[in-house]
């Protein structure tokens, strides 16, 4: 149980043991993408909270009003409401949100895991990584060329077939198409984001990067580049597509739970 000061029991490495895992989805998604994964956390004795980021289809917030500030305020309120220490798991673009929340709420967050996530240096966006890697010339653009944009380019959507092919390529085709229909429009101000973090706060947290070798969205060389840009995270490699919490929930749980429990 947490002590009155909000801290929990300590793990063997000196960090408090996280009692709650807050799951942060990526662009065009919602909390529903964690449905198959949450029971594995619960079976391990962890409280799991899958969030819906504002503007991503669940709360009625217009997608064009999405922003990192809105995301951090929303997820931060969830973190602050938990009874004990929290671990964050950020998938894909949710990795930037997880980093920002960990920086702001460092006193409540004990560790951060990235699942093919955008783990980036202060002030750098994912687009900057792609530009530095000459992604267009080197075939590393992922879903980008397939996006359908609003007239003002403030909101994008992913065609169902492209989503099935690029996000869910390890899932049977019919099932992947069904799941892809659950994707919602994404505000660009909540996707093209960068955050500031400090070595004294976020930089002190244990981190795990779960890289996905079959990923067609955030391709493996891009995942490796982000790890090189923000060194210090432990690494696990899964033979998985962009969404192992959907395609391989048991395997993802096997590699995440030991880290989450410290």
Kindly summarize this structure in a few lines:
The chain is α/β, with parallel strands linked by helices.
Oligomeric organization of the protein chains: single chain
CATH class: Alpha Beta
Order of helices and strands: EHEHEHEHHEEHHEEHEHH
**Distinct helical segment count:** 10
Description of the molecule:
With 262 residues, this protein is of the alpha/beta class. The chain has a single domain, classed as Alpha/Beta hydrolase fold, catalytic domain (Rossmann fold, 3-Layer(aba) Sandwich). Strands 2-1-3-4-8-9 form a six-stranded parallel sheet, with helices on both faces. A three-stranded antiparallel sheet has the order 5-6-7, with no helix packed on it.
Descriptive labels:
six-stranded parallel β-sheet; 262 residues; 9 strands; 32% helix; Rossmann fold; three-stranded antiparallel β-sheet; disordered N terminus
What is the topology?
Elements: E1 20-24, H1 38-43, E2 47-50, H2 68-81, E3 86-91, H3 94-104, E4 109-115, H4 126-132, H5 135-138, E5 148-149, E6 155-157, H6 160-166, H7 173-180, E7 186-187, E8 207-212, H8 220-229, E9 234-238, H9 244-247, H10 249-260
Parallel strand pairs: 1-2, 1-3, 3-4, 4-8, 8-9
Antiparallel strand pairs: 5-6, 6-7
Helix pairs in contact: 2-3, 6-7
